[in-house]
Design a protein that fits this description.
Blueprint: H1 5-10, H2 12-15, H3 21-30, E1 32-36, H4 42-52, E2 56-60, H5 85-96, E3 101-105, H6 114-118, E4 123-126, H7 131-144, E5 148-153, E6 157-163, H8 178-181, H9 194-197, H10 201-220, E7 229-234, E8 239-244
Parallel strand pairs: 1-2, 1-4, 2-3, 4-5
Antiparallel strand pairs: 5-6, 6-7, 7-8
Helix pairs in contact: 4-5, 4-10
Length: 262
Amino acid sequence: MTLNDAEIERYARHLVLPEIGGPGQAKLKRARVLVIGAGGLGAPLIPYLAAAGVGTIGIVDDDHVSLSNLQRQIIFGSEDIGARKVVAAANFVTRLNPRVEIEEYVTRIDPHNARALIAFYDVVADGSDNFATRYAVSDACFHEKKPLVTAALGRFDGSLTTIRAHEHSPDGKPNPTYRCLFPQEPPPGTVAPCAEAGVLGALAGVMGSLMALEVIRAITGFGDPLVGKLLLVDAMAMRFETMKYGWDPDNPLNGTAAGVAA
């Protein structure tokens, strides 16, 4: 897939990076990325993917823009209040980079539709705000053999990892699944929703941008991905830490009981 003159100028700062260059930019142009959620994490993620030249971005969200979103979801403006988030996000991308195709899904992803939505994309980025959706998305990515970049926000903290559970690590073991990292959903009431606990707006921008880095890495192959590693961001102390986690042979997806041996 070749780049025309306008694309060469638009993506010039990528093209001079040896780790991306023309071949990497062509991969981005061919890529199809599905973004789950156009909220706190999706709002900074989507424009960076579009600006990077990802050819097709699917957006899944069933919510409307509200005034309280504007503190952190910076692709929306006051004029978007009341609009569907996927529609407002698509309008933003069109203004930013009209060469990007947006596919809109005004729905909530769940175990019944996750595989059908994910099947036609190369990479999935999950910025949802609840564990039920995260399990549904991560399970579907395993079955459809898709890399998953998933992040979460707290009040002043965030986390990020990349899941490639359909592949093996260099030592021959299966890569860990999301269920290896979080075997069970926290009991109801233990994790307060954003509306109750609050969230630092700029932190959402940091975490969404880091998600974009991991998605672009998954497409172009530069550097080392966060597979088997959980990046923890503490905005109170301005501290970044990386915690390693491994394959759990008891997990239900690629564990030994599922017929996958080390």
